[in-house]
């Protein structure tokens, strides 16, 4: 019995290690900062290893780990929201030009367009478009209904199309006319 339990733990640890590259790819695309992404993935794996007993047999390692990653990310965002924002005065702002008509879209332009998306839309675009998850899997990981994922994905794709068509200078502020 003890050897079987040790083998199960070893198999789970191997499954976690096997998902690390996918976790890192998603975290890098989500955060756009390799150091922050590495920290996020590290914290996710530490939490996963500490909670191996909570991994249900019917859960795929991918879904379980991406759910943990999402929860760690949300916890960090909440903690960051409670802290005041500070930045050195020396930091400059980079201007981004608009591509010429008919120009090919570069990786940098896609990266800036993804960064301009609201977080909820960016998560759906990355999970479904980059990671290849299904709607139900992404919905379970984000803890929202499937229809919400579909809606966020649709709005995210449309916003990406518009941003890439017209160039990405800065995330636009949308003003609504109220009568």
A few lines on this structure:
67% of the residues lie in helices and 0% in strands. It has seven helices and no strands.
Biggest sheet statistics: none
Low-confidence stretches: 91-102
| CATH topology heading of the largest domain | Rna Polymerase Sigma Factor, Chain: A
Class of the largest domain, according to the CATH hierarchy?
A: Mainly Alpha
Q: What level of helicity do the residues show?
A: 55-70%
**CA(first)-CA(last) distance:** 72 Å
Query: Number of helical segments?
Result: 7
Query: Beta-strand percentage?
Result: under 5%
What is the 3D shape?
Answer: globular
Q: Return the CATH architecture of the largest domain.
A: Orthogonal Bundle
Tell me the total number of β-strands.
0
Reading the helices and strands in chain order gives HHHHHHH
CATH superfamily of the largest domain: RNA polymerase sigma factor, region 2, helix turn helix motif
Output mean pLDDT: 82
The class by helix and strand makeup works out as mainly alpha
Question: What features would you describe in this structure?
Answer:
With 179 residues, the chain is an all-alpha fold. The protein has 2 domains: 1-94, RNA polymerase sigma factor, region 2, helix turn helix motif (Rna Polymerase Sigma Factor, Chain: A, Orthogonal Bundle); 105-170, Arc Repressor Mutant, subunit A, CATH 1.10.10.10. The chain is built from 7 helices and no strands. The longest helix is centred in the N-terminal third of the chain and has 30 residues, at 2-31.
């Amino acid at each position: 019995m003890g050897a079987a339990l040790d083998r199960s733990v070893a198999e789970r640890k191997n499954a976690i290690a096997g998902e690390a590259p996918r976790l890192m790819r998603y975290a890098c695309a989500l955060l756009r900062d390799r150091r922050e992404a590495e920290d996020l993935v590290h914290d996710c794996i530490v939490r996963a290893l500490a909670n191996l007993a909570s991994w249900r047999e019917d859960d795929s390692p991918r879904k379980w780990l991406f759910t943990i990653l999402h929860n760690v990310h949300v916890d960090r965002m909440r903690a960051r929201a409670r802290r005041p924002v500070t930045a050195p005065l020396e930091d400059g702002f980079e201007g981004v030009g608009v591509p010429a008509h008919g120009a090919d879209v570069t990786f940098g332009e896609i990266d800036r367009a993804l960064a301009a998306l609201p977080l909820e839309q960016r998560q759906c675009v990355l999970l479904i478009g980059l990671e290849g998850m299904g709607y139900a899997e992404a919905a379970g990981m984000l803890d929202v209904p499937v229809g919400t994922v579909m809606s966020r994905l649709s709005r995210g794709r449309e916003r990406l199309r518009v941003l890439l068509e017209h160039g990405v200078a800065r995330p636009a502020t949308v003003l609504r006319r109220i009568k």
